[in-house]
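Z., the sequence and structure:
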Amino acid sequence: MNSFSFGAESSAEKCLENMDRIFMGLEKKNIKVHPSCRFSIFRKNFEEFYSKVIVGDEESESFNLPGLLEGYRDYCELKLIYSSNKLMSGNILNSMDKNRTARDIQFQLSFAAHLELAGYSLIIQEPDFLIEKNGMIYSVAAKRLSGKSSVYNNIVKAEQQILNHSYPGFIALSVERLMDEKDFLLYLNDPDQGSEICYRLMYKLIASNFNSKHFVRNDQVRALLFSFLMGCIAPDLEPGYSSAFTYFSVKEPESKYGKEVEDFFSHYCITDEDFFSV
């Protein structure tokens, strides 16, 4: 097991500029960002928050801050997807599975983009995508967990997706929605604490929602990957974004498969300079 941080963002003003740039870039690829979609609604709400609270003197209590941070997290995932050379090439985004919910696809694509930026080659192929490094190839089945009751069934579904294909695989799980809604709003006196707090929250969620039955998987499944993403409010009321990633091999670390997983993720390397380029 090992863990890593990822995520970086600039000023609130830059966020608005980046959103406009992303929307224009997507339209050039014939992907229309509709005014009623959640990204457009967030941009409108965030611009109002920026002008009235960050720049102006209106009280932040007049805004739905948890909702604003949820939108900010969505924006960061969209920005991550847009930064992927692989996902933005060809017609990949337009050809995504229309039977899956938009948020599920959003997690699949953003997590794929994260691994690409971390130095892995990305191959768009079932079950959801493949990643390759130094000749080692793994399939990935990604699931955004929506609640505590969905954990086991999603793992079983992801496992079956991997078993339907020839490569060994990882089950990638987004776990932030396992938190109670009252915990969604995070104030940080020191923005540098964001990563540490995200790790603490992520491990707490894993410990309270996962047990041995979740990790007893077919040998073709090598590890469970956990992703945690969260918006936060800094002292100057500018929103921030912090996140964490970790993995757990389903076999003992000293076993053949355990060492194989450790070796694969020893190649992981990502910095703020690599992240979120637009």
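Residues 2-265 form one domain. The two ends are 32 Å apart (CA to CA).

Let me know what you think.
H.
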